[in-house]
């Protein structure tokens, strides 16, 4: 296992730091690329009369790319200092192979994510009679629509969002809490749980703009969106804390496995 060093200490440390940043950024950019393909293939690019479609496309991807770069840099700096890990980051810096650890954590993370997906779907059904689910969000997509959303769900949701929220924000919040507590011993639950919960709430809030694009937001829909996404975020954050970033990614992907399965089943039963 290789722990991160601060950049600039030695040539070797700088090289390892660069490799960590590059590998994680490339991993996250795969999700941004899938988002761009989805924008083009589904015709969801917002029409802007004073800008060309190419410019609108570039601008649509620019902000998440900038945020991803910031999150990767912050995470590489903060994560190892508070005991948080990424198998990919460790491996590219000369650490142990990834597969053995994934064999231990992967199945339980994926299974936990699938359970979370079914639980959230059940909660969603509970919220529906309360008017908390936008009518436009409950339309019946085709199987092609459902399967076509898989790449952006798994790549952007499972990879990019976890790098942004868990690797970047949660690591930073844990580092701030650790420093506020003295920064001597590795942070315990008194530091990590607030970081997990706060990151999960932010995770829920950042889904509101996408929901606003589907329908007008009400207080009920906002509470439902933040609450359900926060539940998932807490589970992903726990896996990041107790295992590593890749376990959080697999748990997040497992949730989308459940969502996609339910969507296909719902289409077949209608």
Overall description:
This protein starts with 10 loop residues before the first helix and ends with a helix. The model has no long low-confidence stretch (mean pLDDT 87). It has ten helices and no strands. It has 270 residues and is mainly α.
Features:
270 residues, single chain, mainly alpha, 10 helices, globular
List the helices and strands and how they pair.
Layout: H1 11-42, H2 53-78, H3 87-92, H4 99-127, H5 143-148, H6 150-180, H7 189-205, H8 208-212, H9 219-242, H10 245-269
What characteristic shape results from the CA principal axes? globular
Class of secondary structure makeup: mainly alpha
Strand content: under 5%
The tally of helices reads 10
Order of helices and strands: HHHHHHHHHH
Q: Specify Rg, calculated over alpha carbons.
A: 19 Å
Would you report the number of β strands?
A: 0
> Gap between N and C termini, in Å?
51 Å
Percent range of helical residues: over 70%
Mean pLDDT: 87
The biggest sheet, with number of strands, parallel, antiparallel or mixed sense and barrel status, is: none
Unreliable runs? none
Q: Could you give a quick summary of the protein structure above?
A:
The protein is an all-alpha fold and 270 residues long. The protein has helices at 11-42, 53-78, 87-92, 99-127, 143-148, 150-180, 189-205, 208-212, 219-242, 245-269. Helices cover 74% and strands 0% of the residues.
């Amino acid at each position: 296992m290789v722990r991160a060093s601060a950049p600039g200490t030695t040539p070797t440390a700088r090289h390892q730091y660069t490799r960590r940043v590059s590998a994680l950024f490339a991993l996250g950019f795969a999700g941004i690329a899938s988002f761009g393909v989805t924008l083009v293939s589904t015709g969801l690019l917002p029409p802007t009369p004073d800008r060309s479609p190419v410019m609108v496309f570039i601008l649509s991807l620019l902000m998440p790319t900038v945020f991803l770069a910031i999150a990767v840099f912050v995470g590489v700096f903060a994560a190892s200092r508070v005991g948080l890990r990424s198998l990919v980051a460790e491996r590219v810096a000369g650490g142990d192979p990834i597969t053995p650890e994934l064999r231990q954590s992967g199945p339980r993370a994926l299974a936990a994510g699938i359970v979370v997906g079914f639980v959230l779907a059940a909660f969603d059904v509970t919220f529906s009679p309360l008017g908390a689910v936008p009518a436009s969000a409950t339309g019946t997509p085709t199987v092609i629509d459902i399967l076509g959303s898989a790449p952006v769900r798994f790549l952007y949701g499972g990879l990019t969002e976890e790098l942004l929220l868990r690797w970047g924000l949660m690591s930073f919040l844990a580092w701030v809490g650790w420093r506020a507590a003295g920064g001597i011993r590795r942070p315990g639950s008194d530091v990590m749980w607030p970081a997990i919960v706060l990151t999960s709430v932010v995770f829920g809030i950042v889904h509101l703009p996408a929901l606003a694009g589907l329908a007008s937001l009400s207080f009920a829909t906002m509470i439902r969106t933040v609450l359900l996404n926060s539940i998932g975020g807490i589970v992903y954050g726990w896996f990041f804390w107790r295992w590593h970033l890749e376990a959080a990614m697999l748990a997040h992907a497992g949730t989308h496995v459940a969502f996609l399965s339910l969507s296909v089943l719902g289409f077949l039963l209608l």
